[in-house]
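JOB MANIFEST
job_type = single_chain_structure
chain_count = 1
residues = 44
[input]
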Amino acid sequence: MWVLLKDFLLVSMGMGIGIVLMCILNVGKEADYKMKQLEESEDN
């Protein structure tokens, strides 16, 4: 029983870390896109 609980905690922790990493990557992509748009609008 203790092993199952430990495995469940590890899996949920891994999923949480994965979700956080995906969010960070998506925010980075959005920021890059916004910066490109800002630079293009300043050039015109």
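[summary]
The mean pLDDT is 93.
The chain has one helix and no strands.
exit_status = 0
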